[in-house]
Amino acid sequence: MGLDKRRAWIAAAVLIIVSFAAACGSSSGGGSSSGGGAAAGKAVSTSTCGPVQGKGQYTIVSDFPLQGSSKHQTDQMNQAIVQVLEENDWKAGDKTLQFQACDDSTAQLGSWDSATCSSNANAYAGTESVIGVLGTFNSGCAELEVPVLNQAPGGAVAMVSPANTWPGLTQKTKVPGEPDKYYPTGTRNYARVIPADNFQGPALALLAQDLGVKSVYIINDKQAYGAGVASYFETAAKQLGITVLGNDAYNTKTGTNYQALFQQIGAKHPDAIMVGGLVCENGGQLIKDKVSVLGSNTGKVKLLLPDGFTTQSTIDDAGADVAEGAFMSVGGVPVEQLTGPGASFVSDFQAKYSPDAVDPYTPYGAAAAEVLLKAIEASDGSRSSVTDNLLNQDLTGTVLGDFSIDENGDTNQGSMTINVAKAGKLATYKVITPPADLIVTL
Q1: Dist CA 241 CA 209 (whole Å)
Q2: What is the spatial distance between Cα 22 and Cα 125, in angstroms, rounded to a whole number?
Q3: What is d(CA 243, CA 240) in angstroms, rounded to the nearest whole number?
Q4: Is residue 26 over pLDDT 90?
């Protein structure tokens, strides 16, 4: 259900590396519970991490792909994190903080890279001042990093993601060992502020029903996220009486032409195409070839895309005219519908950074920082104490309003926003909250 043999082998190899790194780290890190205080203010020394911002005893890092089509989203999320830290005077209670933005992508891939994710996680675990990670953006990268951080010297390092949607990171799935295999010490150190794909898939299926779709063809990228959201969509679509004509993997390699693929799909005459994947996986070309072969997204064959595509970069990569009418989902309520602290955050963000458009994930970057800062404030400054205070949080007055993080690390917010590409920009179409009978849990 989204994990191919190669990725499973990598994950197993990482666990072996982690065990070795943790053992080696105990000689220099002391294996104590002093966490951030043991090496005050030391920066993460790796070429993938940027310069230190702020000046504090404790280090927070972000871990996002900062190259490729996701850059529009991830740059804004880093800016949102800095804005939250500045608003809190670079403190969480009596703990002073500093921040480094780290890159888990490569220029060659233009997206997250498994080796980089693993080496980054080991660098964070081995830097004693690091007491929290904000990330990752991609669920597959989190699958590699969480176990490393879970076994860090001095206690598991807390991680809060603004964007991971694969359910298996926190919940049981059909993938053997999930989620326990990500927490080898038995301690949960991971949370997210975004609804998982078992909400997103049904929301897109309900959208298809709303659009009058009777039949759909699904293609997926074979990765945990893409294949996962495609599977949850398929289950919900069938439950709603929509005929699923196929659910097949597609080649994500840059330079691939998809015209032959869409010609084969077109022979089955679907009312819609659902894509489980990411815009950075040659997504612009995929959309171009869909329109070239099957016609405009405003025409007979609709295009349904998950949050891996929900960014201005999708429209820019495909071209405004080509992207027009494509539907894209993302967790939570639209940016323009945020109220109170959320509306103030957006206004301040626009004034400070003058973005072309505030990306849907930008407020989630801020909310992830708020969750982590609250856990740090409640802690004694050690890694283990921050992690102990990460889950079972009730948060009020945040950028996303009032919400909670449960004992698994999941948010209680389950609404999904459907955006549509319109006149070269993302526009809100509607907000969908899937009913309980469409939410798959094991």
Answers
A1: 9
A2: 8
A3: 9
A4: no
pTM of whole model > 0.90? no
Query: Which residue has 């856990």 as its token pair?
Result: 375
Contact 162, 128 (CB under 8 A): no
Q: Do 84 and 370 form a contact (C-beta atoms < 8 A)? A: yes
Q: What value does the mean pLDDT of the chain take?
A: 91
Structure tokens at 215: 């039949």
Q: How large is the C-alpha radius of gyration of the chain?
A: 21
What are 138's two structure tokens? Answer: 């991609």
Does residue 36 carry a pLDDT above 80? Answer: no
Strands in 5-136 per DSSP E: 53-54, 58-64, 91-92, 95-103, 105-106, 111-112, 130-135
Amino acid residing at 268: K
337-388, pLDDT tens digit by residue?
A: 999 999 999 999 999 999 999 999 999 999 999 999 999 999 999 999 999 9
Single out the residue of 191, 40, 11 nearest to residue 127, CA to CA: 40
Average pLDDT over residues 171-188: 96
Q: Residue 68 corresponds to which tokens in the numbers above?
A: 């490729």
Q: Say whether the peptide bond before residue 96 is cis (omega within 30 degrees of 0).
A: no
Q: Which residues contact 100 (CB under 8 A, 6 or more apart)?
A: 43, 44, 49, 50, 51, 52, 53, 59, 60, 61, 62
